[in-house]
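Team,

Forwarding the record for the chain on the shared tracking sheet. I've put the sequence and predicted structure together so nobody has to dig through attachments.
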Amino acid sequence: MANGIGLFTRRRALRLLAAAPALLTMNTPASAATTLATRPIPRSAEALPVIGLGTWRVFDVGADAAARARLREVLSLFSAGGAKLVDSSPMYGSAESVVGDLSHALGLRAKLFLATKVWTQGQEDGIAQMERSMARMQAGGRLDLIQVHNLVDVETHTKTLLEWKAAGRVRYLGITHYSASAHGALERWLGRGDYDFMQVNYSLDEPEAAARLLPLAQEKRTAVIVNRPFGEGGMFSRVRGKPLPPWAAELGIASWAQYFLKWILGHPAVTCVIPGTGNPKHMADNLAAGGGALPDEAMRQRMAKHFDSL
């Protein structure tokens, strides 16, 4: 059986997941065999599940009923599997409103950790945008996390967010970027010590954050959310048609998605990774990566070497 698992592709793994109705219903836990791991937010010790959900593109569906039905299933599965953090932005079109509508309809607001961003210039416009985000996400006057998106007018919005945090309007504040070209700027802002969270790109295809940013986050006791874990899907093109190495079975890895996610989660600075998906089968696959064993540094190096050889 172990050798067989090593030969699975993402597609074959998803066929098995699709055959397990318990994974795709709201009322049954996502996995009877594994429990989704959590990690503490360094500055509060609040436990946060290691698999989250990104909403860029996939939740920007407007009023499309069929698309919303699939996303409703995704959110149901996400919550049933023990996951919490849903990340959005006013930059993502209708995504905030879709998250708000579906989480309200499913009665999930109290179970989710809702995160969004501020993405504009100026104090007044920033406040107005954050107020709209709260309304769209139906947050009840308080969001769990607001991040300064791509460091846009970060000085101004940081001041506002610190005031909002003191007033109880937001629980945590953070900064984000998606490109290695901005890592130097992220490092400078992170060094100030104001931020509870940093969101950054980090993957087998984009490992640069490990050089300085992730160690600094540990030093500053800043939680790390990882975006672009699959390089916008390009990593799957690289491994398409190629079997997993047999030794991946040692970590219970049954798909390339799990391989990529477990490598990220093997870094001790990472708090949560947020793959975006509007596909319930992919959601189940991603959740499976958050349970069971994670690679130690020796195994992570082996995984990276194998990926680089493909």
